[in-house]
Amino acid sequence: MTSTLLHAENISVRRGGRIVLESCNLSVGPGGRIAIYGPNGAGKSTMLQALAGLLPLASGAVSFRGKALGQDVSLLEFHRRTAAVFQEPLLLRGTVRHNVELGLRLRGMAASERAARVQPWLDRLRISHLGDRPVGALSGGEAQRTSLARALVLEPEVFFLDEPFAALDAPTRTSLGEELADILDEQQIATLFVTHDIDEAADLCDHWRDMARVEWSSNSYDRPSARWGVRRVSDPAGANPPTGRSDRSDQPHSRADLRRPSTRQEALLVGLRRQPASNRGAIRSD
């Protein structure tokens, strides 16, 4: 069985007659978590949408469990085994419970089984008391919790997150980010997370691989709750994709010593390593 769950090889995307993403590679294994990090316009969301099968490719290929997406495995089958949450919750009319169980209902799951699957996620994301509330009456944080529950109840093999906390206030963003990080630790779901917030990415990502060439400094940098860094592409074929297992060979790099990337593609990925929950807030000195 291949250790690569999702693999992109030399993918490019064209929009409006121009290439907006060019020759990008990425691999993630079961339980691996990758932060796609960079400034606005770097192509982060384009990359995520291409990997999620939501955008056509100008060139290159995406494979899922070793099968070419759109050829050996259909987009419908792929989407049934993945889930996505975007910056806007994209909820439908109805109650919180109605929205959370939507995907299960579309799959023909019986009502009793839906209830058994949905309730634990309402509890886990602390929205059980909102189950019968119309989504139009939710706060931004409550709406995004509902969106997360709707995705997680599907038990996805790959989880795509496109700046899911960007529209939330700072306290809500922090608390929800910490809760989601714990959930990903527990569930070991392969996750691709787009953000332009270095701290947010640090809390959610514990493994990394480069998507583009980088030539950034490798001096030590310590701060509470996270260590982060970048390195050159060393695994373009995806032979050793990041998984949920810890890889202590990754070296910390200096935030202060980073030069500005010279291309959009170089800016796409900064890898980060999240401290275990028991060590959050402790400053590493190694």
Summarize, please.
By secondary structure, the protein is α/β, with parallel strands linked by helices. The protein has helices at 44-51, 75-80, 96-100, 102-106, 111-124, 140-152, 170-187, 198-204; strands at 6-15, 18-28, 33-37, 59-64, 67-68, 82-85, 158-162, 190-195, 226-229, 271-274.
CATH 2nd-level architecture? 3-Layer(aba) Sandwich
Order of helices and strands: EEEHEEHEHHHHEHEHEE
Separation of the first and last Cα atoms: 36 Å
Task: Please state roughly what percent of the residues sit in beta strands, choosing from under 5%, 5-15%, 15-25%, 25-35%, 35-45% or over 45%.
Answer: 15-25%
Description:
- There is one protein chain.
- This protein has about 290 residues and is of the alpha/beta class.
- The chain has one domain (about 30-55, about 80-280): Rossmann fold (3-Layer(aba) Sandwich).
- It is built from 8 helices and 10 strands.
- It has helices at about 45-50, 75-80, 95-100, 100-105, 110-125, 140-150, 170-185, 200-205; strands spanning about 5-15, 20-30, 35, 60-65, 65-70, 80-85, 160, 190-195, 225-230, 270-275.
- Strands 2-1-4-5 form a 4-stranded antiparallel β-sheet, covered by helices on one side. Strands 3-8-7-6 form a 4-stranded parallel β-sheet, with helices on both faces. It has a two-stranded antiparallel sheet with strand order 9-10.
- Strand 1 (about 5-15) and strand 2 form a beta hairpin.
- The longest helix is centred in the middle third of the chain and has 18 residues, at about 170-185.
- The two termini are about 35 Å apart.
- The model is unreliable at about 210-240 and about 245-285 (pLDDT under 50).
